[in-house]
Amino acid sequence: MRVYLPSTLTALRALLDTGVVGAAPLPAYGVTPSLREWYAEGDLEELEYVALTLAAKASVRLLDADPDAVRRRVVIVADVPDAVVAWALHVDRAAVKVADPVALRLVQAVHVDDPSAEKDVTVAADAVVEADLGSQDAVFRVEQAEGHELQWYATQEIGPLLELS
Question: What is the value of pTM for the model shown?
């Protein structure tokens, strides 16, 4: 199953250093049966974009928790065995948990904000908890980051990307 793992540039560096994405179980997003049912008219590409967007939003929460991380959203795209994926529908209709560590060889690509998004992503990370608590002003600040499209990078571009960040 293709999964979209919310991440940070700090964690992306750790992926290159250790060869695995974080410690399992890993929160992620994917095209679940529940997501397919919800977007009955959407094709696979549209559903994958929804999962990517949700992972990018979760990346903002990771940035809030790591004040030293560069304020750019990161999503790691990996193809993992179906057997290690469990639905986490109590979180979201596209939420999953990956039971095993995700090896670098399973990573297909990464999506990262352009440096021009850092200001809006910083504001979003500072506002995400308030947004979760219902502040409409904070929701607006978080949505400003979502206005930036993530850039696509092949796995062989991760090292050079990190050197520039």
Answer: 0.94
Determine the Cα–Cα distance for residues 93 and 91; give it in Å rounded to an integer.
7
Structure token pair of residue 144: 């400003």
CATH of domain 2-115: 3.20.170
- Note down pLDDT in tens along the chain; length 165 residues: 999 999 999 999 999 999 999 888 999 999 999 999 988 787 999 999 999 999 999 999 999 999 999 999 999 999 999 999 999 988 999 999 999 999 999 999 999 999 999 999 999 999 999 998 999 999 999 999 999 999 999 999 999 999 987
| Domain boundaries along the sequence of the chain | 2-115
